[in-house]
Design a protein that fits this description.
alpha/beta; four-stranded antiparallel β-sheet; about 30% strand; binds adenosine-5'-diphosphate; binds magnesium ion
Length: about 230
């Protein structure tokens, strides 16, 4: 299904997810509804443990819901099997985590190439693309460094480059600056926004940072298992 500007890229309806908790179950998401249009940036705030990461993991196809629907550009994500979900994640979604989750044994360049190699792109264009992104994000001097040789801010920039490498339609960022000092957070925020604007990306950014949330045109809060 073709999705033009202004139409929903992501449409979440009645999404529920619970986890076992002792004898009972903890109802983390209890009927989340969300419509995200192409080009929109949505900030999601909410208390720790309110289910923000759970929502991103479900939308990103990293976990499955108990019930409800997640439609992405006409595709019912909840109906995909594990290998279809892996392909959906790789092709449509860019994910930036709170902790960078870069592979420690690989260079910055190789980490950014990884999603492209996973989808069997040839090495040379994957390396070219990864290099361009790292240069764009100000890391031309850091291409061959391993994650452990980079600062926290540099690690998150590499993680952002990796998330963008496959030209995803949707960028999901889960407290991407939660682990950084104020000045570094600020520069990562700026970079996220520039990137988002330039590429007309659709994104969901989970953040504690109300200032960051304020920069987004749209923000909502997770509470009681729903978005408000
Ligand atoms: P947030 O990102 O808003 O801090 P999470 O989505 O990480 O919240 O977690 C919501 C709740 O679900 C928390 O109480 C957490 O402990 C619980 N939870 C998350 N993942 C699991 C899991 N895999 N197994 C059991 N409980 C989980
Ligand atoms: Mg979280």
């Amino acid at each position: 299904m073709a999705v033009g500007n202004g139409e929903a890229l992501l449409s979440v309806e009645g999404l529920c997810k619970s986890y076992p908790s002792g004898e009972a179950r903890l109802q983390v998401l209890d009927g989340v509804d969300l419509i995200l249009r192409r080009g929109e940036t949505l900030a999601v705030t909410g208390a720790s443990g309110s289910g923000k990461s759970t929502l991103l993991h479900l939308v990103g196809g990293m976990e499955t819901a108990d019930s409800g629907s997640i439609r992405f550009a006409g595709l019912e994500v909840s109906g995909l099997d594990a290998s279809q979900r892996a392909s959906y994640r790789n092709r449509e979604i860019g994910f930036v985590f709170q902790f960078h989750h870069l592979l420690p044994e690989f260079s910055a360049l190789e980490n950014v190439m990884m999603p492209l190699l996973l989808r069997r792109d040839p090495w040379t264009p994957a390396a070219r693309r990864a290099r361009e992104l790292l240069v764009e994000l100000g890391l031309e001097e850091r291409l061959q460094h391993r994650p452990g040789e980079l600062s926290g801010g540099e690690q998150q920039r590499v993680a952002l480059a990796r998330a963008l490498a496959g030209e995803p339609q949707l960028l999901l960022a889960d407290e991407p600056t939660g682990n950084l000092d104020d000045a570094t957070s600020e520069s990562i925020h700026r970079l996220l926004f520039q990137t988002q604007e330039q590429r007309k990306l659709t994104s969901v950014i989970v953040t504690h940072d109300l200032r960051l949330a304020g920069l987004c045109r749209r923000s909502c809060r997770m509470e009681g298992g729903r978005l408000h």
